[in-house]
Amino acid sequence: MYPITKYGYPPKAENTINYIDEFKELGFSSIELEGIREEHLMGVYEIKDQVAAYIREQKMEVPYFCVVLPGLSSPDQEVRNNNLELFRKGCEIAFDLGSSGVLDNAPLPPYVFPEDIPVVRHYHEDVVLAAKFPDGLNWNSYWNEMTETYREACDIASEFGLSYQMHPALGVLSSTTDAFLHFHDAVGRDNLRFNFDTANQYFLKDNLQLSLRRLAEHIDYIHISDNGGKQVEHLAIGDGIIRWDDFFETIDKIGFKGQFGIDIGGSESTVSDLDLAYRNAAQFLTEKISK
Questions:
Q1: Strands ordered across the beta sheet of 30-36
Q2: 106, 66 in Cβ contact below 8 A?
Q3: How far apart are the first and last CA of the chain?
Q4: What residues contact 160, with CB distance under 8 A and at least 6 apart?
Q5: pTM surpassing 0.90?
Q6: How far apart are CA 64 and CA 104, in angstroms?
Q7: What is the pLDDT of residue 131?
Q8: For residue 14, with 0-12 CB atoms within 10 Å meaning exposed, 13-18 middle and 19 or more buried, which class applies?
Q9: What value does the mean pLDDT take over residues 117-136?
Q10: With bands split at pLDDT 50, 70 and 90, how would you rate the model's confidence at 158?
Q11: What are the respective helix, strand and coil percentages of the chain, to the nearest 5?
Q12: What's the CA gap between 187 and 29, in Å, rounded?
């Protein structure tokens, strides 16, 4: 989440090459890039060939490309269809980048906000609590239509050989282990995966050791950051209270062989030295994985 923290959400699409250079200067060769909603996603789409060529030239990789489209869970069929078209564009970008999957926030309930859906990385409790719901909402009909949309999205991702990673967060419909397993069963697609997020799940009181065991067959990608347990935040490793020894002992027990992504920062988090936090996290992961 380095560019998002440093340059805003979303960061300017036209500066993507610059972000890649910054990642490389930090010492990273495996990175995460993103396309956030229509304007930003299409901005990245316009330069995808240039970005893909530069990634290859620099001998870097983008295992996962973020395609953030909250409209996929809209109660409006036309909005969902439009977002499915955008999702296909995101999958094209991911394919060209050589990614193994795309990543999105888990479905947002059909909230009605005072204005449009806020463009934020994570929703704070006061924002979620202020939301209302459409008049006449029939939950069962909405659920069936929404899960069918995600079934179609999974099928689109499958056309490109991609997994579809669901990122958990406060206020979404697949924020915890139980919620994801329920959603996964409803969608019924094997390439629907859970993007394990240590900070968000810790804040949501999802026992990390138990969650890893229950989701072992559904996770290929883990976002690493610390959390203090009282608010949504993505802290530098060691600045929170997550029990990392227990976490990595469980990682070993379930035989996890997937990717780790450093997810430190964001407007909701206080990180005094972002560069140092990322370098330290990389060193921390290297030491843990080597054991």
A1: 30-36, 61-68, 101-105, 163-167, 192-197, 221-224, 259-262
A2: no
A3: 26
A4: 91, 92, 94, 95
A5: yes
A6: 10
A7: 82
A8: exposed
A9: 72
A10: very high
A11: 50, 15, 35
A12: 34
Q: Identify the structural domains of the chain with CATH numbers, from first to last.
A: 2-290 (3.20.20.150)
pLDDT band at 121 (very low <50, low <70, confident <90, very high): low
Give, in order, the Cα–Cα distances in Å from 288 to each of 47, 150, 227, 284, 285. Answer: 37, 35, 19, 6, 5
Q: Tell me how far apart the alpha carbons of residues 8 and 53 are, in angstroms, rounded to a whole number.
A: 25
Tokens of 230: 């009282």
Two tokens, residue 265: 């920062």
Burial bucket for residue 57 (CB in 10 Å: 0-12, 13-18, 19+):
exposed
What is the CB neighbour count within 10 angstroms for residue 21?
Answer: 13
Helices (H), the chain: 2-7, 16-26, 37-46, 48-57, 77-97, 125-130, 139-159, 177-187, 198-203, 208-214, 244-254, 274-290
The structure tokens listed for 229 are 């347990």
Burial of 243 (0-12, 13-18, 19+ CB in 10 A): exposed
